[in-house]
């Protein structure tokens, strides 16, 4: 059991396995009609009851539904109809005029590719002082990225990218650990500022026997230690959105938002032989523990945004763990008061990121990020990191509200925390702060 206090809010992770048995099999809904009453089966997750021992007025946390609890009805098939854009909001609510980030930001999670003048123009437009390019690759690829960003060295940090094959040597070759560490050292000496690891580690790369390679695999140790030797952060994306581990069904939020509509089950891991998210999470813990000198920036709030107590436990247990916010605003914004308190408590451990790319629309992607962090605006469209063919935001078909971080916390999340690991970007930050009349 994990307990943590955020401001005045006490969160207690409590077991409540008996929820389903406490629920009636159906409820009457809607207005009474002549004749038969409307009967609708209520799923257990819709109205959970507190477990025994929780007193009136006390706070408790329902467990997430079991995997099989969200299985589709017999004979059900996914729709092939594209889900449209969110409907218009028929509410007149105050809106803050956000035209760029309040303070220059370092986007610690951008898929930019080789730097171009057009990218720099976009960054200037939306208030991004510097970006971490996570598409550096290895070998000739990272060399090309470093050459392209040379004119913008104080605004771009090119990261290398983990691969299970380096210089033609597979991870299943005994020579791999030394080859991987040597390529990292070469890249860092050439100017690479860190390492990006994608979710293929844990969910795609395999051993000869077909089992999945996890982050605590000893063959990766030499690489993690090389990052520590050169004081280079590891931006690591392990696991995936929790909804992708659940069945494709009408009860799955991600399906309701439009995922898997006529597109098969790609990106869904339910009973397809993939590791459980718990297995991947345990490997992450082992990795942090085994390499205390290596800084791991856990992408997407470590993919644990569905259970804040797990994020807190990761940060409390491992001083070398950081988290960044990309592709989570759609979920954080559903509980703005809670996550505001959380970010204030862990203000030194959180970095700003978007998981964007140069093709993202400023009005519907960049600016909603800033609205979320800077204002208390309510019920606005979140910055959809996935926009499906019909227009629906694939990570969640709902609106969010802002958390209005205090300025000193906002500065840390936006740029100060990132500068601890990317000091070469400081000059550009200082210039942009001065140009806008802001104190450093």
Radius of gyration over all CA atoms, rounded: 23 Å
Reported CATH architecture of the largest domain: Alpha-Beta Barrel
Strand order of the largest sheet: 5-6-7-10-11-12-13-14
The CA-CA distance between the termini, in Å, is 41 Å
- What is the CATH topology classification name of the largest domain? TIM Barrel
Name the overall outline.
Answer: globular
How many helix segments?
14
Assigned CATH class of the largest domain? Alpha Beta
Major sheet size, sense and barrel closure: 8 strands, parallel
| Uncertain stretches | 1-30
Count of distinct strands: 16
Give the helix level as a range of percent. 25-40%
Structure write-up:
This protein is α/β, with parallel strands linked by helices and 440 residues long. The protein folds into 2 domains: 1-26 and 40-66, no CATH class; 105-435, Metal-dependent hydrolases (TIM Barrel), CATH 3.20.20.140. The protein is built from 14 helices and 16 strands. The protein has helices at 19-22, 117-126, 140-149, 176-190, 200-203, 221-229, 253-256, 277-290, 308-317, 329-332, 336-345, 362-374, 407-419, 426-435; strands at residues 3-6, 9-12, 27-28, 39-40, 105-110, 128-133, 156-161, 165-166, 169-170, 194-197, 234-236, 296-298, 321-324, 350-351, 380-381, 399-400. The strands form 5 sheets. It has an 8-stranded parallel beta sheet. Strands 1-2 form a two-stranded antiparallel sheet. The protein has a two-stranded antiparallel ribbon with strand order 3-4. Helix 2 links the parallel strand 5 and strand 6. Helix 4 runs parallel beside helix 6. The protein is globular and about 70 Å long. The model is unreliable at 1-30 (pLDDT under 50).
């Amino acid at each position: 059991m994990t307990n943590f206090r955020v401001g005045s809010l006490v969160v207690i992770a409590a077991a409540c396995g008996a929820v389903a048995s406490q629920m009636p099999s159906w409820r009457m809904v809607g207005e009474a009609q002549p004749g038969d009453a409307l009967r609708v089966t209520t799923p257990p997750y819709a109205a959970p009851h507190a477990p025994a021992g929780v007193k009136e007025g006390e706070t408790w946390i329902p467990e997430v539904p079991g995997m099989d609890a969200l299985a589709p009805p017999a004979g059900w098939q996914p729709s092939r109809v594209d889900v449209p854009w969110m409907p218009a909001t028929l509410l007149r609510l105050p809106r803050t005029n956000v035209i760029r980030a309040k303070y220059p930001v370092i986007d610690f999670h951008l898929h930019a590719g080789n730097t171009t003048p057009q990218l720099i123009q976009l960054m200037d437009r939306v208030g991004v002082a510097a970006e971490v390019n996570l598409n550096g690759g290895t070998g000739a690829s990272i060399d090309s990225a470093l050459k392209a960003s040379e004119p913008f060295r104080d605004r771009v940090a090119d990261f290398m990218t983990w691969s299970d094959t380096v210089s033609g040597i597979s991870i299943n070759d005994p020579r791999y650990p030394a080859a991987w560490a040597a390529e990292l050292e070469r890249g860092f000496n050439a100017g690479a500022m860190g390492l990006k690891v994608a979710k293929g580690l844990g969910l795609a790369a395999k051993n000869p026997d077909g089992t999945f390679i996890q982050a605590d695999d000893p063959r990766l140790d030499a690489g993690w230690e090389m990052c520590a030797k050169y004081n280079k952060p590891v931006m690591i994306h392990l696991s995936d959105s929790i909804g992708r581990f659940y069945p494709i069904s009408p009860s799955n939020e991600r399906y309701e938002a439009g995922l898997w509509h006529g597109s098969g089950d790609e990106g869904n891991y339910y009973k397809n032989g993939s590791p459980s998210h718990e297995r991947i999470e345990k490997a992450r813990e082992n990795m942090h523990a085994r390499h205390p000198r290596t800084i791991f920036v856990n992408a997407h709030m470590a993919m644990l945004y569905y259970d804040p107590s797990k994020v807190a436990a990761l940060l409390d247990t491992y001083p070398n763990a950081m988290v960044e916010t990309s592709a989570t605003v759609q979920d954080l914004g559903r509980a703005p008061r809670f996550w505001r308190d959380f970010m204030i408590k862990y203000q030194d451990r959180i970095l700003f990121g978007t998981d964007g790319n140069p093709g993202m629309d400023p009005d519907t992607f960049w600016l909603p990020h800033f609205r979320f962090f800077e204002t208390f605006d309510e019920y606005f469209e979140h910055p959809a990191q996935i926009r499906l063919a019909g227009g629906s935001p694939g990570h969640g078909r709902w609106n969010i509200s802002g958390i209005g971080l205090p300025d000193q916390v906002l500065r840390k999340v936006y740029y100060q925390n990132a500068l601890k690991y990317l000091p070469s970007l400081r000059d550009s930050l200082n210039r942009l702060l001065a140009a806008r009349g802001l104190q450093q």
